[in-house]
Amino acid sequence: MTAVRSIAVRYFAAAADVAGREDEALVLPVAATVGHLRAALRERYGAEMDRVMASGSFLVDGVVSRDDARALGDAVDVLPPFAGG
Known about the structure:
- By secondary structure, the chain is α+β, with helices and mostly antiparallel strands.
- The protein contains three helices and five strands.
- Helix content is 32%, strand content 32%.
- The protein starts with a strand and ends in a 6-residue tail after the last strand.
């Protein structure tokens, strides 16, 4: 049996629209990575979330990442692409 833990996930802008919420706790393996989270969100919210994640990024422990191998901390923000200047 794989050990699991709860990860706090916060959604912003388009990601929150797709999820229909601003935050939730997901149960993932203890050694979960951004790739694990990406797969869980794809399974949970489908192609629309997949499109948001394809051009967005994740904020893990204060560091923006798109690296599927990056280990998750206790909280992750799902960030859609931002425009501005």
